[in-house]
Amino acid sequence: MKSELVLDAKGLACPMPIVKTKKAISGLESGQILEVHATDKGAKNDLQAWAKSGGHELVKHEEEASVLKFWIQKG
């Protein structure tokens, strides 16, 4: 999936992946995709809830070699 920006949040513990995601997505335009890479297992639920509450959409997520990857479309 094509993304406008890739955020490396690997090695960061909660709440830092959310904090960095919020900052990164603020620089995008509505409809653009932010790709987030994280290793914190809690990021799956956290990012899903954060995206929904912020009016964004978690378009896709997958796990690859213990790295969680998320594609969030800015609302």
From TrEMBL:
This is UPF0033 domain-containing protein. Residues 7-31 form the UPF0033 domain. It holds the Pfam family TusA. It comes from the Bacteria. Belongs to the sulfur carrier protein TusA family.
